[in-house]
Amino acid sequence: MSHIELRCPRCGKSRPADMSAEVCLDCGLPLDVAYITHDETGLAADVNAIPSPIHEPGSMVSLGEGNTPCVKLLTIGGRLPLSQLFAKLEFLNPTGSFKDRGTATMVSVAREHGVTELVEDSSGNAGASVSAYAARAGIKSHIFVPADAPEAKLRQIRAYGTEIHPIAGTREAVTSAAVAFHQQHGLVYASHMLSPYFAEGTKAFGYEVVQQFVVQQLNGAMPDHVVFPVGNGSLLIGAFQGFRELQASGIIDKIPRLHAVQARNVMPLVAAFNNETWSLADATKTVAGGISVAAPSRQWQILEILRLTAGSAVAVDESSILRMQRDLAEQEGIFAEPTSAAAFAGLEELASQGVIQESDTVLVPVTGFGLKDEPPR
Q1: Is 377 among the domain residues?
Q2: Which of 24, 123, 230, 290 might form a disulfide with 260, Cβ 3.0–4.6 angstroms?
Q3: pLDDT digits (tens, 9 = 90+) for 77-112
Q4: How far apart, in Å, are the Cα atoms of 29 and each of 7, 32, 188, 296?
């Protein structure tokens, strides 16, 4: 008997776990992993023992992902001003982005289910991650990408021996092409946007934050705020799930306030959260390609998490993203891709609004490495 099932985060209906990317038939939402052999308070008894959907340890596919460092940002923190500003360097994961956390779990479950060929669509980082982990697992991968994706990201995806499918048009057109291909050829659609296993893999971020800030006493207490760049929201969702499990087990008292940052050119979540007018027709190209998602599949879930944690959602313009990317490199020695820099631009906005106070402890994940998406010169 499996120790997991797939459950709708909205209506709570569940079904047996499999590799289907099928959404809840009642709500239309992507499903989450639910553990059926534990009650909620017994799930995370140890901050070092992260519950996993993997049944056989031998099925696990890993490249050493996770355990990324947190560093204090003195220069940018002093300028904002925020006296306790930390960055978690997620770009030090094996393929250069946080996506490796989710991919490791998703591909491990795929291997456990005997999958030999899969399909994914990605603006870059997830495609590189899935390509690498699929190669490690001996699984053939087809990655559908925007034809205008950064060349550095496309080169990385090709390096892992995947079959790459460039698609002209919008990010949504890329997804449609991938879905059509998986249906036509009867292949597993290993979508980082829909897969419950991908979102489940990213919750290790939350466990590590607790380990670093509480157990190792990086700052003596949990962060008051965590600020994320958000497109499909898998890292924010995973972090929340991890924090919630640890809170239910009594390991932490409260969950940090979680905030979402988007580019003003593509801001569906910000508009929905703040009751602003925005539509697909308003989307334009942004330098923050990793969060250029005009119709997030998990939008309801992301908005619910922001409300539950008393978080907020802000949009930032292109010039502030590029300025913050430059400042992170020149003032802190952190070369972040524009998507990651967007979170810091959003943090600046939240500080100026008074949402975040000078004495608050703040954590921002640097989700991707700058060499993947270099700034224009």
Answers
A1: no
A2: 230
A3: 999 999 999 999 999 999 999 999 999 999 999 999
A4: 10, 9, 19, 11
